[in-house]
Amino acid sequence: MQMLAFDDFYLHYEGNRTRLTIKFYCEYRGESVAQQSAAAMQKSLESSREGMLRNLNNLKLQLESQ
After folding, report:
1. Residue 19's domain spans which residues?
2. What domain count does the chain have?
3. pTM (2 d.p.)
C-alpha cells in the first residue's frame, strides 16, 4: 500500500485563547485498499482521527499546566 498524506494547520488567537484548526489530506493506493470495504476504510480513518485528538488533548493539557 502507498500512502501520501499531509496536514495544514492554523492558529487563531481569540483574546486569551487559541483555536487550532487542522486540515488533513490523505491518499491511499494499493491492492489492499481497493479490496477494503467502505465501512472498514471509514473505521480506519476514524481510529486515526481519534488518536490525533488524544494527542492534541495531551498537548493542550501540557501547555495549560505551564
Report:
1. 2-64
2. 1
3. 0.59
